[in-house]
């Protein structure tokens, strides 16, 4: 027999599992199901990956655009730097031609071939380079009072190739001649450069002044083509213009940049900065500093140096004793064969007899050439 109390206890005991299960069910109903959690996590990861992918794509596109723009510019600048560097270091070969014609460094015609008396002389430039000279003097004692012409030749060959012209000057002007063979030309040592050959010209003047048997009051500097640019540089220096009587310029140019534009037919070359050019020979700038008598000889059939360049030099020349003469049949190298050529030079020198070099102690303001 069970008491009522026991029956109730048993009844409550039987109902406890149900109550616990119901309680657990209610607690579980407050939590998120496991599949839903995974779905949200995957969605978050996917969204993060998409955002990173979008950012990385934009970054990659930006990098490509920067490389395409700036990389191309840098590549172009590098190409320009390389090309200008090659041209800069090869410019000497483009300007100076001591090997044309062939054997010009070996075979140098001597003045006796033209029946001219001469001395073959070697002197040292200030930098130690040995320079070859021909000194051709008038016979007997006439050479002591005769003017001395310093002959500065062009950019090809050697001084011996100009002996016919030298013979004409010798006999027509009754002058001595000092023919200068630039460094790197003929039997002279070294390699040609703008600074070097201008130094050689100054060395030639110093040599004449070191010779007591020569007339120091009548030194004439003659320059053709490249030699004209060297003569202008020499006469533009006060310490040397004070020692020079006259200058004769024949078929020379205004500058190397101007000649490059003419030869290559690229006007843009005139706009390039001067530091691009290793050799400049800015004669148009220097000629305004010349104050001694200058004769400009222009061959109107010059197919290499435009006669307009010589006219520009004449107009810019600062000398109050300047003259110009034109030869209608004159070419670049053969104007000296034109009728009246030597007479024009002789008349110019006679007109300058009243001029005497002024002793100037100041040094040149030309720091570099």
Automatic annotation (TrEMBL):
GO molecular function, a single term: palmitoyl-(protein) hydrolase activity
Domain AB hydrolase-1: start-end pairs: 147-260
Family annotation (InterPro entries): AB_hydrolase_1, AB_hydrolase_fold, FSH-like_dom
Gene3D superfamilies: alpha/beta hydrolase (3.40.50.1820)
Pfam families associated with the record: Abhydrolase_1, FSH1
Domain Serine hydrolase residues, every copy: 286-329
Transmembrane segments: none
Gene Ontology cellular-component annotations: membrane
Protein name per Swiss-Prot or TrEMBL: Protein ABHD13
Organism: Bemisia tabaci
């Amino acid at each position: 027999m069970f008491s009522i109390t026991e029956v109730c206890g048993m009844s409550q005991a039987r109902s406890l599992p149900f109550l616990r299960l119901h309680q657990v069910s209610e607690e579980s109903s407050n939590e998120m199901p496991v599949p839903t959690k995974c779905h949200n996590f995957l969605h978050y990861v996917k969204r993060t990956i998409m955002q990173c992918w979008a950012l990385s794509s934009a970054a990659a596109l930006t990098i490509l655009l920067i490389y395409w723009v700036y990389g191309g510019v840098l590549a172009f600048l590098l190409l320009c730097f390389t090309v200008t560097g090659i041209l800069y270091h090869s410019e000497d070969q483009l300007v100076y031609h001591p090997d044309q014609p062939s054997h010009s460094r070996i075979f140098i015609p001597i003045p006796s071939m033209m029946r001219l008396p001469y001395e073959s002389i070697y002197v040292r430039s200030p930098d130690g380079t040995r320079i070859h000279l021909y000194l051709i003097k008038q016979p007997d004692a006439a050479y002591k009072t005769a003017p001395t012409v310093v002959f500065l030749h062009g950019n090809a060959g050697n001084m011996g190739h100009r002996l016919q012209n030298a013979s004409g000057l010798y006999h027509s002007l009754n002058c001595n001649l000092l023919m200068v063979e630039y460094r790197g030309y003929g039997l002279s040592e070294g390699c040609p450069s703008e600074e070097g050959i201008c130094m050689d010209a100054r060395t030639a003047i110093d040599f004449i002044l070191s010779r007591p048997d020569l007339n120091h009051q009548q030194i004439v500097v003659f320059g053709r083509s490249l030699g004209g640019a060297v003569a202008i540089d020499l006469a533009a220096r006060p310490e040397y213009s004070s020692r020079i009587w006259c200058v004769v310029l024949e078929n020379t140019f205004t500058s190397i940049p101007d000649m490059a534009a003419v030869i290559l037919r690229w006007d843009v070359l005139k706009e390039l900065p001067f530091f691009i050019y290793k050799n400049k020979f800015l004669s148009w700038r220097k000629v305004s500093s010349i104050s001694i008598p200058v004769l400009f000889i222009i061959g109107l059939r010059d197919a290499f140096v435009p006669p307009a360049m010589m006219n520009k030099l004449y107009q810019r020349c600062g000398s109050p004793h300047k003259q110009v003469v034109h030869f209608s049949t004159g070419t670049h190298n053969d104007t000296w064969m034109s009728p009246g050529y030597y007479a024009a030079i002789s008349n110019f020198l006679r007109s300058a007899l009243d001029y005497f070099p002024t002793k100037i102690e100041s040094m040149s303001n030309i720091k570099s050439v």
